[in-house]
């Protein structure tokens, strides 16, 4: 089977906090030939970096809690626990974003970044990828509230939890963000 596809047309149909593109395309079929012309919208979110801050001396994980509008109708509620995360801006390297976002969201200094995963977030409707790292931090004496950029609508609280408790929280669904579950495989 050929893995060919053709983008007939690409247009931006919305540009705001996010951007939405509309693709008109055709692709090869497993049984041979080409699909009909399809029209699909795609969320252009930008690629993300996430960091799971881990304190190996105390066997604790640092998670951030913040309001996430995308989770309002999810059944989980909009206040989510998740790793530190941020969007890679044009010209930035993922590792630099990891350090910047960790400083902004938790005021932690990171040790060596250890790559854990690189995946498509929701390829059925979004172009976004996520790179997930783990890094050593010292979790003693962290300020738990007042993190993030208020001018960007961020109000972040830290949760410093034993690693086994964090794993149990993921297993129970208390930490539903996909980036979190990759961190404990």
Automatic annotation (TrEMBL):
GO molecular function: ADP-ribose diphosphatase activity; ADP-sugar diphosphatase activity; metal ion binding
Keyword match Hydrolase: yes
Secretion signal span: none
InterPro entries according to UniProt: NDP_pyrophosphatase, NUDIX_hydrolase-like_dom_sf, NUDIX_hydrolase_dom
Biological process, per Gene Ontology: nucleoside phosphate metabolic process; ribose phosphate metabolic process
Pfam family, one: NUDIX
Cofactor field: Mg(2+)
Binding-site list for Mg(2+): 85, 101, 105, 154
Gene3D superfamilies xrefs: Nucleoside Triphosphate Pyrophosphohydrolase
Name by which UniProt lists this protein: ADP-ribose pyrophosphatase
Lineage: Bacteria, Pseudomonadati, Pseudomonadota, Gammaproteobacteria, Chromatiales
